[in-house]
Specification:
5-stranded antiparallel beta sheet, 8-stranded mixed beta sheet, alpha/beta, LPS_length_determ_N, disordered C terminus
Length: about 750
């Protein structure tokens, strides 16, 4: 249902009157297009709005990264390269072997990689370099190491203002012996330089302290055990302190095993690269060099171990065989000297030949058995087979001996002596040749691994990479700042542009867009510091863009007011902190500047602050006029600004909502409306209390104040719904505090008479 009113005295413009309470029809107005799924401009505006947040986060992370890069301890890296060769590189190849190599998985390199990391190799390096003894200067926390690097090779004056014993230069200490009870492993002790190569030992959480000299070995009994130590070198001024710890040997071995980075270069190349990182360049180089030397030594020893064991066994057997041969020759010579030469018959020669052949076979079997015993035990199947063959030969020899017994005694003795000489000679000669071959193998055996690149002491640290750290910090800061900005935007859900409201409500309902005013921020900060009156921007800086936008709103309101049922206008904000009081006070001043008689009423009986804009008190005010304690003229402050009168809240009464239902309130509004061209009402927030709904029932029109980045769609919808339920159809929206953005405009006003927000528009 429409209500026709006569044109108001403010304007003689006539147009189709507004349809208050008529459901909104989107066909009547030009509907705004839906917001695109990808709004690049919106994203850029979000970044622009959060530029200080993003910049602050980026600056904080960058400064932290710069400080870290300056004070972080350098990390050095040493490396070595080993080539694992095939066991039989000269073996003949054919089509089948080459084809099978395509599917072969080389396990030699993998095995050598595990051996490099084994305790057998690493423990020798730990023991040789005594890595379980940790002695280092006592630097000031965080930044002390950096200052020490800046002082070069000079010794410093210990302490911070004479306290703490911190060192700032090239102080060094070398400890070659430091053993403590097992319960004290890992505890930190202190070496304090006393001057003239003397020191004081203390700490470890124990009541133990003694003085000593450099180069002297000390053995100090304690309730938990004995401490043994020897300091080889101490370069520090008196008072300089060093941290000393005895680490667990196993813990150090495991630490180095974990620190070693071993990898094969390429696929099945046999090239192994070993890397080790550490804070001390020389120590890192020494550890990796020791590991490389120990690995090469043990690899070569492993390859010659079999030959050395066989050679050791033969060296034990050869003297015995030589004595047996000499004894056989002596007996044969004695026999010849006593009996002369004996001419054996053909049968004797055949028997001897058969016996010699059997003895020869037996000798070969014994030699094979000797070689096998260097690798296997008596119970091995191969050795057992040799033993069976020896038994068979022994049986054959026994048979020949039976035949020889029938020969004359002299022939038997000659045959036996000749046989002993031949057997012992052949056996001794064979074992001597075998021993010589094993000696050549031990000397000429070459390992199947070789060190291609030996470790070199690193000259420059690989960490920290200061430029990279700072660059990554900048990128990380920008990323986190952007993420936080978009997260904050998503959590807040505030509307950033007036077009979003028009897309939401399907109507051109934004009457004014008030840009953010930087001068207003400065004035407000000054007012808070001075605890004085609030600045009225329309008077202080009348040419500000925010005031210009209010002037545009004034023109729009003057055009629409003839269609309102009265000249009372209310500015309603969904929540607090939207700048509603700023809009009310400054718009009242702008309207008054046009020559209109304006009355501004602070109807926020909860926490009204409009009186501070004009430098007056709260009381007497609206509350007293409603109670009838004073006349309406007595609460009006005339000409607070030229042509602008003002009614403050007065004393804040209890039961505010019921208080506003008093009949005197409606009568008072009708009374003052007759004497002014425009009456402006500033009520409490819509969504917090019901006061605005009561006050709005007396207003000819209601404008909703929204703030960029704070007011969201749900708050606008809920505000319109509550106003509609109270029988109020808001005229439009004033969009306040819009930030200056890319492609933005300073002021923006839209006027439409058919674009009101009806009951169904929320």
């Amino acid at each position: 249902m429409s209500t026709h009113v006569e044109p108001h005295a403010l304007s003689t413009v006539r147009s189709r009157p507004p349809f208050l309470g008529v459901p909104f029809d989107p066909s009547v107005v030009d509907a705004a297009s839906d917001e695109p799924a990808f709004n690049l401009k919106g994203y850029l505006n979000t970044l622009y709005d959060s530029r200080w947040l993003i910049g602050s986060i980026t600056a904080f992370i960058t400064v932290a990264a710069v400080l870290y890069a300056l004070v972080a301890k350098p990390v050095f890296e040493a490396d070595l390269m080993i080539h694992v060769e095939e066991e039989s590189p000269n073996a003949s190849k054919n089509i089948l072997s080459e084809a099978s190599s395509l599917f072969e998985t080389k396990k030699a390199a993998i095995a050598e990689m595990e051996l490099l990391r084994s305790r057998m190799v690493v423990s020798r390096a730990v023991d040789n370099l005594q890595l379980y003894i940790d002695v280092r200067p006592k630097y000031f926390p965080v930044a002390g190491f950096w200052f020490a690097n800046q002082n070069g090779q000079a010794l410093s004056t210990p302490g911070l203002f004479g306290y703490g014993g911190y060192v700032w230069g090239s102080e060094k200490a070398e400890v070659s012996l430091f053993d403590v009870p097992d319960a004290w492993l890992g505890r930190e002790f202190t070496l304090t330089a006393l001057g003239q190569d003397r020191f004081r030992f203390s700490g470890g959480g124990q009541r133990i302290m003694f003085d000593g000299e450099v180069g002297v070995r000390y053995r100090v009994p304690t309730p938990s055990g004995v401490i043994e130590m020897k300091v080889d070198r101490l370069a520090a001024n008196p008072g300089g302190r060093f941290r000393l710890r005895r680490m667990s040997r196993l813990a150090m071995i495991e630490a180095i095993q974990n620190a070693l980075v071993i990898s094969e270069q390429g696929k099945q190349s046999g090239i192994i690269e070993v890397k080790l990182q550490g804070e001390n360049a020389r120590r890192t180089y020494a550890v990796l060099s020791e590991i490389g030397r120990e690995y090469m030594r043990q690899n070569l020893a492993r390859k010659t171990e079999e030959a050395e064991k066989s050679l050791a066994f033969l060296n034990q057997q050869l003297p015995t065989l030589k004595r047996q041969l000499e004894q056989a020759e002596d007996r044969y010579n004695q026999f010849r000297n006593a009996h002369g030469t004996v001419d054996l018959q053909e049968e004797a020669r055949m028997s001897l030949a058969q016996a010699a052949a059997a003895r020869g076979r037996r000798m070969d079997l014994i030699q094979k058995k000797t070689e096998l015993l260097a690798r296997f035990t008596e119970d091995h199947p191969v050795v057992a087979a040799i033993n069976r063959q020896i038994k068979e030969v022994d049986a054959e020899i026994d048979q020949v001996n039976v035949r020889i017994k029938d020969l004359p005694v002299l022939e038997q003795d000659e045959a036996r002596l000749t046989r002993d000489i031949k057997v012992n000679t052949d056996l001794y000669t064979a074992l001597s040749n075998t021993a010589q071959q094993l000696r050549l193998i031990s000397v000429a055996r070459v390992s199947n691994v070789r060190m291609v690149d030996a470790p070199i002491a690193p000259e420059k640290p690989i960490k920290p990479n200061r430029p990279l750290i700072v660059a990554l910090a900048v990128v990380t800061g920008l990323f986190l700042g952007t993420l936080i900005a978009f997260t904050r935007k998503a959590m807040a859900g505030g509307i950033d542009e007036p077009q979003a409201i028009e897309r939401l409500l399907r109507a051109r309902v934004v009457y004014a867009t008030i840009p953010h005013s930087v001068p207003q921020d400065k004035l407000m900060r000054k007012a808070r510091s001075d605890d004085g009156a609030l600045p009225l921007l329309a008077q202080v800086i009348p040419d500000d863009a925010a005031i210009e936008s209010l002037r545009s709103f004034r023109a729009a309101l003057l055009f629409a007011m003839p269609h309102f049922r009265n000249n009372i206008v209310m500015f309603a904000g969904p929540t607090r902190g939207l700048g509603k009081s700023f809009v009310s006070a400054n718009f009242a001043a702008v309207m008054a500047a046009s020559g209109k008689r304006v009355l501004l009423i602070d109807a926020d009986l909860r926490n009204g602050q409009l009186h501070r804009y004009f430098g007056i008190g709260r009381d007497p005010g609206l509350s007293r006029a409603i109670l009838g304690q004073v006349a309406i003229d007595e609460v009006i402050h005339h000409d607070v600004v030229e042509n602008l009168d003002f009614i403050p809240t007065g004393e804040l009464p209890p039961n505010r909502s019921e208080f506003l239902l008093h009949l005197n309130f409606a009568g008072m509004l009708q009374q003052v409306a007759a004497h002014y061209d425009l009456v402006l009402l500033d009520p409490p927030p819509l969504l917090d209390v019901a006061d605005a709904l009561i006050i709005g029932g007396h207003a000819g029109t209601v404008f909703i104040v929204a703030r960029a980045g704070h007011t969201n769609e749900s708050e606008i919808n809920e505000s319109i719904k509550r106003l509609n339920h109270a029988g109020i159809s808001p005229q439009g929206v004033v969009f306040n505090d819009m930030a200056l953005r890319l492609g933005a405009y300073g002021t923006h006003a839209k006027v439409t008479s058919a674009g009101q927000i009806g009951f169904a528009g929320g």
